[in-house]
């Protein structure tokens, strides 16, 4: 082979290696993304399964509550507790509550009238003029 073909062959080999590295890198990148998406979807599946179990339990509880609300036992309990009904043969007692006597209101003495107060400016005037406050003030 002539020597002038060797650089062409070497450049082609480098190009093929670069293309292969790019393909491997691209495949690796997409593989990692798929693994991350699978993990995220698995976590979402677990959360949804938990929510389904909770909703099934809530549905069972509500079915039980509906059955009880439609039963004669519930109707009788509501009639007795809220409507004040009694069965035939029951002894009904009516308690009488005595109201306590009203408390007497205390009689307060009339407040003493306040002595007239001098205006503040007049007190200052007296103090500055040397007259001072009047006796008893």
Task: Describe the overall structure.
Helix content is 61%, strand content 0%. The chain has three helices and no strands. The longest helix has 64 residues, at 6-69. The mean pLDDT is 87.
Blueprint of the fold:
Blueprint: H1 6-69, H2 72-81, H3 120-129
Keywords for this entry:
137 residues, mainly alpha, 0% strand
**First CA to last CA: what distance?**
132 Å
Helix content percent band: 55-70%
Number of strands: 0
Structural class given helices, strands, pairing?
A: mainly alpha
Mean pLDDT: 87
Poorly predicted regions: none
Task: Provide a compact summary of the structure.
With 137 residues, this protein is mainly α. Helix content is 61%, strand content 0%. The protein starts with 5 loop residues before the first helix and ends in an 8-residue tail after the last helix.
């Amino acid at each position: 082979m002539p020597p002038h073909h060797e650089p062409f062959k070497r450049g082609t080999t480098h190009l093929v290696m670069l293309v292969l590295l790019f393909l491997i890198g691209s495949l690796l990148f997409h593989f990692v993304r798929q693994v991350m998406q699978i993990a995220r979807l698995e976590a979402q599946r677990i959360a949804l399964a938990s929510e389904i179990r909770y909703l099934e339990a809530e549905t069972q509880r509500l079915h039980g509550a509906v059955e009880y609300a439609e039963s004669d036992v519930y109707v009788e309990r509501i009639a007795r507790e809220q409507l004040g009904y009694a069965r035939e043969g029951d002894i009904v007692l009516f308690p009488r509550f005595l109201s306590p006597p009203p408390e007497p209101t205390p009689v307060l003495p009339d407040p003493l009238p306040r002595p007239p107060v001098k205006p503040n400016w007049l007190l200052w005037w007296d103090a500055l003029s040397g007259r001072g406050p009047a006796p008893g003030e």
